[in-house]
Amino acid sequence: MDNNEADGMPIHIEVADIPSTSGIREIEQSLEAESLEDHGSENPDKERPTRGPISKLDATLKGLMGEANLRYARGDIETAKRMCFEVIRQCPEATEPYFTLSQIYENVNRKKYKGYLLLAAHLEPSNTGLVNRLAEVSLQDNNIEGAIRWYSRGIKYYPRNIEFHLKRLELLKQRDVELAGYSRMVLMAKTTLANNLAPSDHELMLSLVMEIAKERFKQKEYFRAIEVLKIPMRKIPNKVTKDVINMLLELLLICERYLECLDIFTQYCGFEFDISITDDNKIVMNAYKIPDNLEIDLKTHFIIFLVKLTTENLYSPLIDKMVIEGDVELFGDLYLDIADALLAKKHYTEALKLLIPLVKSKRFSQAAVWLKYGECLAGCKLDDMAIEAYYTVMTMAPTHIEVLYPLGKLLIEQGKKEEAMLVLNKDLTGNVLDVAVLLEKLKLLEQIEDWEGYWKSVDLLLSRYVYSLRRRPTKCCDRMFTNNFYHQPF
Description:
Order of helices and strands: EEHHHHHHHHHHHHHEEHHHHHHHHHHHH
Radius of gyration: 35 Å
Number of helices: 25
Helix content: 55-70%
Mean pLDDT: 83
Protein name: General transcription factor 3C polypeptide 3
Strand order of the largest sheet: 1-2
GO biological process, one term: transcription by RNA polymerase III
InterPro entries: Tfc4/TFIIIC-102/Sfc4, TPR-like_helical_dom_sf, TPR_rpt
Organism: Acanthoscelides obtectus (Bean weevil)
Region (Disordered): 1-54
Strand content: under 5%
Largest sheet: 2 strands, antiparallel
């Protein structure tokens, strides 16, 4: 703490309140609050009015302050300082004398320079010029967190100051490269920026919301991704792109928010619907009118929407048309999306319409697709064909353990126990242990009364999934596997 006196008046300068590296959690909390603010009621075409700083000095003190600045400009530093201290004595809550004193000490005493700037910013927290200068001071001191906090303070008072948003975002990205844990703060800062962009910045807004939504999607934060994608819907509805609409529909379908899907299809895609809502708020689709020349991505989301509503009579013709007119080599990933939705509803016959061309294609004839194909065939009670499909999976991907359980189960149902045992034993050769496969093997061993193999498999299951058995092989465990114990069922 420094003690300066002018005409007997002490001025105390304390710089410890300048943001430091200890405020990381506070930064994150501030960004979290900003990103969750409701901007829905704001008019995007009307900028928030900004006002210049309102002086607290009367006419006489304004004149004295002007004279102090003039003396400082002419190099009469001591007189300028005394005049500033006099203004402070008469009006200690005024910002101007502290700011002038900071200028006086800028190249003389850095500690006093920062201290007077901090006093000025404390008295007038909405002064963006002071905030910007303090952020720059923090950067000069290599205090990046401090600069981020100062820019956050400026954004709090002037959220439409895009320069502050961009500077803060750049610093957060820099810290994200240097240290872990900043990626979430980068996303929150981007969300706040997107919320405060003017409609004229629609290209930047659309780019930002897509970046954020994709990252949220990867992290399975679907609700946050939806809220971000709604920003352009609210602020620039006439500029919304198909990419935004497609991703929003995908997320809404994942979260089963079907009424919102209807709104998107109606407002942005040109659909017409005849629907009714049941007493338990379920949607009943009676009829629909699909627009001409609809893009295949939107058509895919609409089919999935109908599948989730369990309206087989409505989506089946659309699937037939897609299979006849579509190119599986180009749009196979969309076929898979629809097939996954059908499999989730156990609509195996319809899913087969899509999976058959997929397994015959060059690009999509892969183990994962053959696995879905086998599941479909099994669901349609075509067990022999399903077994053949599962063996194809094992040939294409020998380490693919997900195929072992359904294949072993089908073989057991057909009475091929020895063949099933060979399949189920393959899981034991690797480090990955599929519990469902091992449990199916236990059932089979019990049926054929192979108690020695049964208890060895139990031992394997317990050793992998019971912590105490992994830690210490106790005497009771040793006793459990005696010859007499093998002859008793589990």
